[in-house]
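pls design
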């Protein structure tokens, strides 16, 4: 399933899906969450073992697929559903309150947005704004390129829906597994299938300029900031900023209404950007750490082909150290830093992130309630002491084990994913 297929799945005919390949970091998994389709990905070979029409239990929260369940398993599954609803219900007041830790420390929780259809639901989820709007999804579900005006209407709607809260538009992040079939056949775009993200946009500015124009125009209607994806270093960040500013000057010259200023930041999702984050911090208004790409790029993996044997990789010591370094540089240069990869919504990661100094997390809105619950019961001191011990662990597996052990020992009663284990 490519992201473009997933977007077009007939939602009224679908209860959920499971795939042999992929991982939690796949765009397919991210989209399933946005579309509220229960999904389990990266199971490994299983399709040959089941027949069409067979009964199965699919649990997207714990990531399990039970084929041909026994009556006992069905009953257990049903009581878990009830337990989860009770848990959500019991803590529902927290959902709309700000995320404040036990010692009063305020944490900002933002939502990741893929499709404007999700707007109303997100607005009700009590988040502090949009920390990552993946604008390329608006391109993936269509046969042609959107016009500047169409983009402007979409972006204006999003900016207005959250006003006065901030919305961070991540500019076009196409390529790799988010390939646009329509670009492949386009003349004059030679080699485009080998380029991605900001490199693709900088090489083919004509593709990108309509979006930049739409963003400057929409920025009048709310608290809008933009960030560029997969920035390798200062050269690309400067080039992106320069193009964005030229676009603004053109709009002004043409007499088109648009914002005068826009905060411009970048995603730290390549190891090179981590290493030069001190230099980038001098020129950027903010950072956002994208661990979904940082993990595979750091560890020599292909994002679309991480499977069920690679569950510990997000907990690799290099990732924790990368976050620590970027947070230190951001703080030294006094710019805000958000974590917006999937780890931001992982309840097992939240204490280490707080311990490293992260105070802004952007996640799938479905994760916000659970993260808020953990934050409510923890203190900064506890998180700092915990991450200190985690930083001494030498392997991803050891960190994975320790993060799970600690949370299950202290916070099991707050976790939806742990319902099965705690019973
Ligand atoms: C990331 O890479 O961590 C990220 C947030 O962006 P995406 O998942 O869209 O690549
Ligand atoms: Mg990314």
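designed seq:
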């Amino acid at each position: 399933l490519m992201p473009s297929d997933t977007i077009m799945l007939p939602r009224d005919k679908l209860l959920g899906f499971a795939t042999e390949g992929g991982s939690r970091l796949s765009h397919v998994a991210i989209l399933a969450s946005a579309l509220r389709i229960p999904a389990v990905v990266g199971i490994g070979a299983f399709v040959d073992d089941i027949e069409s029409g067979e009964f199965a239990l699919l649990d997207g929260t714990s990531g399990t697929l039970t084929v041909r369940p026994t009556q006992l398993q069905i009953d257990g599954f049903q009581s878990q559903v009830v337990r989860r609803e009770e848990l959500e219900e019991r803590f529902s007041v927290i959902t709309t309150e700000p995320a404040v830790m036990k010692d009063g420390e305020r944490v900002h929780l933002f939502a990741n947005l893929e499709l404007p259809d999700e707007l109303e639901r997100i607005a009700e989820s009590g988040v502090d704004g949009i920390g990552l709007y993946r604008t390329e999804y608006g391109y993936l579900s269509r046969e042609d390129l959107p016009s500047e005006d169409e983009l402007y209407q979409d972006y204006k709607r999003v900016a207005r829906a959250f006003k006065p809260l901030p919305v961070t538009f991540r500019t076009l992040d196409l390529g790799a597994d988010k390939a646009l079939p329509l670009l492949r056949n386009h003349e004059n775009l030679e080699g485009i299938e080998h380029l991605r993200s900001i490199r693709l946009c900088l090489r083919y500015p004509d593709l990108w300029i309509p979006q930049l124009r739409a963003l400057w125009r929409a920025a009048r209607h709310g608290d809008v900031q933009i960030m560029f994806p997969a920035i390798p270093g200062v050269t690309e960040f400067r080039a992106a900023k320069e193009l964005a500013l030229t676009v603004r000057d053109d709009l002004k010259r043409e007499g088109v209404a648009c914002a005068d200023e826009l905060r411009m930041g970048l995603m730290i999702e390549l190891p090179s950007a981590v290493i030069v984050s001190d230099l980038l911090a001098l020129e950027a208004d903010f950072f956002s750490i994208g661990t979904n790409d940082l993990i595979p790029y750091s560890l020599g993996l292909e994002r679309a082909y991480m499977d069920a044997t690679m569950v510990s990789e997000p907990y690799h010591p290099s990732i924790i150290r990368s976050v620590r370094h970027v947070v230190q540089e951001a703080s030294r240069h006094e710019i805000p830093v958000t974590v917006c990869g999937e780890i931001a919504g992982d309840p097992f990661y939240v204490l280490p992130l707080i311990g490293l100094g992260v105070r802004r997390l952007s996640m799938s809105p479905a994760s916000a309630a659970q993260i808020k619950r953990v934050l409510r019961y923890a203190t900064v001191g506890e998180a700092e002491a915990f991450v200190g011990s985690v930083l001494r662990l030498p392997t991803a597996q050891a960190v994975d084990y320790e993060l799970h052990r600690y949370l299950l020992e202290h916070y099991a009663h707050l976790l939806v994913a742990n319902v099965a284990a705690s019973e």
